[in-house]
Amino acid sequence: MEKLQLKSLKPRHAILSGDPECVSIEILITPFLWNQEIVNTSIRLDGIDLPSNMLRDLVGKSFEFPINPMDGYIDGSICIGEHHPVDVTSLSFNRSRDGDVSLVVKGVYELDPSFDFFEQTGRIPFTMGTTVSSCAV
User: Fold this and answer.
1) Half-sphere exposure of residue 62, counting CA atoms within 13 Å on the CB side?
2) Is the pLDDT at 113 greater than 90, yes or no?
3) Is the backbone peptide bond immediately before 69 cis, with ω within 30 degrees of 0?
4) Cα 133 from Cα 16, distance rounded (Å)
5) 136 versus 73: which is more confidently predicted?
């Protein structure tokens, strides 16, 4: 079985939804080929305490978060075969050059060593950036 390289997890776009103080963000991952199958997944972040669910209110701001199980953590996971925890430590919202809103996410993948299909296991830090849109009206 081919080992999954974490560099395959490239963000395509993020979608912000929910109510202030309980926001969700889904980071869609660009589909990739692994073991002759197309993998279509996303990183799901729930229960995020933000001052607003409107992107215009978040642009230019950064937010820090503790890791699970500390109060205020973001409940995050990615599904590849099964759900793997994702601890997010910061979210930064910025205006991009073309006028869109970009999101930079810093965190740690918690990859269980019993799943031997990852190239690495344990606590793997990551930083990813992508555009973000909102479902809020």
Assistant:
1) 8
2) no
3) yes
4) 6
5) 73
What is the spatial distance between Cα 49 and Cα 1, in angstroms, rounded to a whole number?
A: 40
What is the pLDDT at residue 80?
87
In tens, the pLDDT along 13-66 reads 999 999 988 999 999 999 999 888 999 999 999 999 999 999 999 999 999 999
**In 65-100, where do the E strands start and end?**
75-80, 82-95
Q: What is the pTM of this model?
A: 0.92
Nearest Cα to Cα of residue 59 among 19, 28, 104: 104
Contact yes or no for 12/130 (Cβ under 8 A): yes
**Distance, CA of 45 to CA of 16 (rounded, Å):** 9
Collapsing DSSP to helix, strand or coil, 117 comes out as coil
